[in-house]
Write a structure and sequence with these properties.
The structure holds two protein chains of two kinds. Chain A is an alpha+beta fold. Chain A has three domains: 64 residues, no CATH class; 110 residues, no CATH class; 210 residues, Orthogonal Bundle (MetI-like fold). Chain A contains eleven helices and nine strands. Chain A has a five-stranded mixed beta sheet, with no helix packed on it. The longest helix of chain A has 38 residues. By secondary structure, chain B is α/β, with parallel strands linked by helices. Chain B has a domain of 162 residues: Rossmann fold (3-Layer(aba) Sandwich). A six-stranded mixed beta sheet of chain B has the order 6-7-8-3-9-10, sandwiched between helices. In chain B, strand 4 and strand 5 form a beta hairpin. Classes of the chains: A alpha+beta, B alpha/beta. The interface between A and B is medium-sized, with 22 and 29 residues.
Chain lengths: 422, 267
């Protein structure tokens, strides 16, 4: 919640800051900037570069600030680390009261060294002094009564801490810690956690980076990082190509022949809305968890998309183009080759982009379920070992690859079907 | 026997709701080689149906079309067609569009190139060979369409409102081009149009079709196409009798449209 508010504050603050800066810049005089109606005119809405830059920066800054990153000059308050002490007051069966001191040392859980309990003299009176050592973000039971004289007698109990009275099943706050008294009267102490995220939940950016270096050089679970990602990609490309090789001719025949359309329409229309992920269990039962099963799953994921886009490409031919080709003397085969196929390419490219996206999502999911290697296998395995940095790294890499695939498809589309949308 | 004869063509088809439509009834027409004929009529009178039957895209329910002594059964390169717009192949440049017909016939490459170059000169697009068709203006695209049709050297050229989507100025220029091509190539041309002026200017013979059922209502023999070959079209419009003919045909078509609408909402 705090993070969301901070994020909104940065969003709004940056907006006004950039607006203020832009006032001093010379006004642009290109056509779009001369438009007075911009609200509702989509063509007049130009993506603000500064906003994109600040947006990315803000995410990294928040990430760094809330994880105590070394890359960040400022952080939100972290967990309490260091020594503090409190006194508790106990009453015994005779109704007498006595105070005793508890020294607590809180150590950084990231450093593997566990600090010993600090030494402390028992002190006078029936309540004896205690000490405890607790890791940051953790809590610990402090059995303060155990060394006290009279512990175990019926009416022996701790009644207050640092002057605040406490009873079983209630909590009080002292400097740097929260103290909860269990139902049986033992104290459970939780040092101040601060606002930062524990590295187990969200590692700082530099940890993810160093994990990348480490995994890139050493690999993970018998396979190098390159192999993990490469195998995922290979499966996607293999499954997609298989789907395209079968789907495109199938789509063409459905667009060109009533028999084919009648025969395959029920199958295609039924299979299309079935999410490929729902097929994983059946594919595993039939083909196992090896490459065969994965390729078949991705084949099924892309098949229907490619079929439908090829069919749409055929039905998208303007009838006058076909008529023109016939009256120019073209044969059926020539019309297929010179009119129908090129005319359907834009549709097929759109389908291919969608299919690649779906395949990439499906392969990761399939690897999450069962795989020896692959991006999905890497992150699910890392999560089982609580290597959150590797999980985040994997997610980032999966995103980068998915985005690159889409960009690649768009670039090739520009070169191969330049007439699209013209 | 040279020329195009249309013998008692009727076209009737059923609709999904059980009714049937008589698109054409008993249309007969004799066209000599080298004539240019314009066909005019209110919407729904079956102009395009007639053209599609001549082109061979539709089979008439009765009657037949004969070209040079044989019956038309389907589309063929002997009957070229120019469409309103969007019939060019966007994935080919201007050259490949124009040479499409010869290429399908496997004409040698050098001959194709010569032909393309010549035809593009004729339609006024010399030097545009390597342009993509979507980079051209609407008028230029129709010039390419004309050249593409001529490249195949058809006996008959069928035009389905080829200038319908052009602006007025471009349209006038293109009308001149059509007349020029007609005279230079000596092709038989059948031109369908919505514009009365265009029909009068371009038609040696002008057919007015009437709707429901589609039939030939009236035929005119007009001198303006012949005049337009040598004269500026704006001058042609000033000649005696032009305005009267235009008004007469306009009134005729206006009445037919009124009839279709049932006169509802008018006057």
């Amino acid at each position: 919640m705090t993070i969301l508010l901070i994020y909104i504050a940065i969003f709004v603050g940056a907006f006004f800051a950039i607006k203020a800066i832009e006032k001093f810049k010379t006004k642009e005089t290109d056509f779009t900037s001369l438009k007075t109606v911009t609200f509702g005119d989509e063509s007049a809405v130009i993506s603000n570069r500064a906003a994109s830059f600040i947006s990315v920066l803000a995410i990294f800054m928040i990430w760094g600030a809330f994880t105590g990153s070394k890359l960040m000059p400022f952080h939100v308050p972290g967990p309490f680390i260091g020594d503090f002490s409190f006194t508790y007051t106990a009453t015994n069966a005779a109704g007498e009261t006595d105070d005793a001191l508890v020294k607590v040392v809180v150590y950084d859980s990231k450093s593997d060294k566990v600090l010993p309990k600090p030494d402390i003299e028992p002190g006078p009176g029936f309540a004896k002094n205690d000490s405890a050592s607790i890791a940051a973000w953790r809590s610990g039971l402090i059995k303060v009564r155990r060394n006290d004289v009279g512990y175990g007698e019926n009416d022996y109990k701790v009644v207050s801490i640092d002057g605040q009275s406490i009873s079983p099943s209630s909590e009080i706050f002292i400097d740097n810690a929260r103290i909860y008294m269990t139902a049986k009267g033992t104290l459970s102490l939780t040092p101040e956690k601060g606002w930062q995220m524990e590295s187990l939940y969200l590692p700082p950016p530099e940890d993810v980076w160093s994990r990348l270096i480490k995994v890139a050089s050493e690999g993970y679970k018998n396979f190098s990082l390159f192999e993990h990602l490469g195998w995922s990609l290979l499966r996607v490309v293999g499954g997609f190509l298989a789907g395209a090789i079968v789907g495109i001719p199938l789509g063409y025949s459905m667009g060109l022949s009533g028999w084919f359309r009648g025969w395959f329409d029920p199958i295609v229309e039924f299979m299309r809305p079935v999410p490929p992920l729902a097929l994983i269990p059946l594919v595993i039962i039939w083909f196992g968890i090896d490459e065969e099963g994965k390729i078949i799953l991705l084949f099924l994921a892309s098949l229907w998309i490619m079929t439908i886009s090829a069919r749409a490409g055929v039905s998208g031919v303007t009838i006058s183009k076909i008529h023109a080709a016939y009256s120019l003397g073209a044969s059926k085969w020539q019309i297929m080759r010179h009119v129908i196929i090129p005319n359907s390419l834009p549709e097929i490219f759109t389908g291919a982009r969608v299919a690649m996206g779906v395949c990439w999502g499906t392969v990761v999911a399939a690897e999450l379920v069962a795989a020896q290697k692959g991006a999905g296998m890497m992150i699910i395995n890392a999560s089982k070992f609580q290597m959150t940095d590797l999980v985040i790294l994997g997610i980032v890499l999966i995103g980068v690859i998915g985005y690159s695939i889409d960009i690649l498809m768009r670039i090739s589309e520009k070169y191969l079907v330049p007439w699209k949308g013209k | 026997m040279k020329g195009l004869t249309i013998e008692n063509i009727s076209m009737r088809f059923d609709l999904a709701n059980g009714e049937s439509i008589q698109a054409l009834k008993d249309v007969s027409l004799d066209i000599k080689e080298g004539q240019i004929i314009s066909v005019l009529g209110p919407s729904g009178c079956g102009k395009t149906t007639l053209l599609n039957i001549i082109a061979g895209f539709l089979a008439p329910t009765a009657g037949r079309v004969n070209l040079n002594g044989h019956t038309v059964t389907g589309p063929d390169a002997e009957r070229g067609m120019v469409f309103q717009q969007g019939a060019l192949f966007e994935w080919m440049n201007v050259r490949s569009n124009v040479s499409f017909g010869p290429r399908m016939k496997r004409m040698p490459k050098s001959e194709q190139d010569k032909k393309v170059q010549h035809l593009l000169e004729v339609v006024g697009l010399g030097g545009f060979e390597d342009k993509a068709v979507y980079e051209l203006s609407g008028g230029m695209q129709q010039r390419v369409a004309l050249a593409r049709c001529l490249a195949n050297d058809p006996d008959v050229i069928l035009m389905d409102e080829p200038l319908g989507a052009l602006d007025a100025l471009t349209r006038e220029k293109m009308q001149g081009l059509v007349l020029k091509l007609w005279k230079e190539t000596g092709k038989t041309i059948i031109l369908i149009t919505h514009s009365v002026e265009e029909a009068i200017l371009l038609g040696e013979r002008l057919l007015v079709l009437a709707p429901r059922p589609g039939r030939i209502h009236k035929e005119y023999q007009l001198p303006y196409a012949e005049m337009g070959v040598t004269m500026d079209l704006r001058e042609v419009k000033k000649t005696q009798g032009y305005t009267e003919t235009r008004e007469e045909i306009l009134a005729m078509i206006w009445d037919m449209e009124e009839e279709i609408m049932g006169g509802a909402g008018e006057g």
